[in-house]
């Protein structure tokens, strides 16, 4: 991709210069009643239709620039970490704000394969919260420790959030796909014990029953372009990538329209503060889809 000097967050709709999945009957993106029930029971569900190869090619092309050392100081990032790991061996790139820099990652937010299931699972109009990029290089790609997303998001209330994790290449057990603890979406919120590296760190805050559940994680292997949705309390993590290929992923975090700020400080670095009790909205938190448009 060419360097972008304009903050694309000023555009609160698809730019339209990348291929999308809007053609055809949008009902093909809808989850069945059984899938929605499974989500509410287990805490996660795989989407029905992947992104097109053409679109994923564009995302991966832009990713090469986004994760480069030349772009790490880009002021449009909310956060950018060339390496979240500190063990001196593994590498885990992690950043927030790609949608402000790349047209393809910008338009990913509005893809009906993402937004239609999101309205179903939240049963609400869906607003953007923030994006993430995770990149595990070959051989020594770092893991993402067991955690619950909402433990990082208590600066918003009520808890009406949803995460969509998109595989930009095949995600397998060998290269560090997501693993979930089924049913953990019904647990209470756990303390933060770290995002990268130590997969055992969460054990210190678990009950005996929760510790037993942790011993039976469910891996979610996805093909390129597929996505999985999970609840904000679902415990999840991913192990190291020891294969010869990288494992990139894009994450779209969403919330129900009407969720409010629960903080006097900025919700994301580089954005104006939203007063506690005021709804999360504005330039950096655009509305992605109305529930009525998914029926």
Could you list some keywords that capture this structure?
single chain, 295 residues, alpha+beta, Jelly Rolls, eight-stranded antiparallel beta sheet, four-stranded antiparallel beta sheet, 5 helices, 14 strands, 16% helix
In words, what does this structure look like?
The protein contains 5 helices and 14 strands. The chain is an alpha+beta fold. The model has no long low-confidence stretch (mean pLDDT 94). It has one domain: Jelly Rolls (Sandwich).
Structural class: alpha+beta
Helix content: 10-25%
Tally the helices: what do you get? 5
Tell me which CATH architecture applies here: Sandwich
What's the mean pLDDT score?
A: 94
Number of domains: 1
- Gyration radius (Cα, Å) is 18 Å
- Spatial gap, N to C terminus: 36 Å
Main pleated-sheet profile: 8 strands, antiparallel
What is the CATH homology-level superfamily?
Answer: q2cbj1_9rhob like domain
Question: What ranges have pLDDT less than 50 throughout 5 or more consecutive residues?
Answer: none
**Series of secondary-structure elements, N-terminal to C-terminal:** HEHEEHHEEEEEHEEEEEE
Shape: globular
**CATH topology description:** Jelly Rolls
Strand content of the residues, in percent?
15-25%
């Amino acid at each position: 991709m060419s360097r972008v000097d304009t903050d694309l967050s000023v555009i609160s709709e698809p730019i339209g210069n990348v291929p999308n999945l809007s053609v055809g009957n949008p009902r093909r993106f809808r989850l069945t009643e059984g899938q929605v029930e499974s989500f509410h029971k287990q805490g996660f569900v795989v989407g029905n239709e992947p992104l097109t190869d053409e679109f994923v090619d564009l995302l991966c092309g832009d990713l090469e620039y986004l994760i480069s050392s030349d772009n790490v100081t880009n002021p449009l990032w909310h956060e950018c970490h060339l390496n979240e790991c500190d063990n001196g061996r593994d590498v885990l790139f992690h950043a927030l704000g790609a949608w402000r820099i790349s047209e393809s990652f910008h338009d990913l937010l509005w893809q009906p394969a993402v937004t239609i299931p999101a309205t179903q699972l939240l049963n609400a109009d869906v607003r953007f919260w923030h994006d993430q990029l995770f990149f595990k290089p070959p051989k020594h790609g770092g893991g993402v420790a067991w955690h619950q997303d909402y433990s990082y998001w208590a600066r918003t209330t009520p808890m009406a959030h949803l995460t969509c994790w998109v595989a930009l290449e095949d995600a397998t057990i060998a290269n560090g796909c997501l693993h979930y603890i089924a049913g953990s979406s019904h647990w209470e919120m756990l303390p933060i014990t770290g995002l990268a590296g130590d997969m055992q760190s969460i054990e210190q805050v678990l009950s005996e029953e929760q510790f037993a559940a942790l011993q039976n994680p469910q891996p979610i292997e996805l093909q390129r372009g597929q996505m999985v949705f999970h609840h904000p309390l679902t415990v999840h993590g991913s192990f190291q990538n020891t294969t010869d290929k990288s494992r990139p992923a894009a994450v779209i975090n969403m919330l129900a329209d009407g969720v409010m700020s629960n903080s006097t400080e900025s919700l994301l670095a580089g954005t104006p503060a939203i007063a506690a009790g005021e709804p999360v909205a504005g330039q950096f938190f655009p509305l992605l889809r109305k529930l009525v448009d998914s029926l």
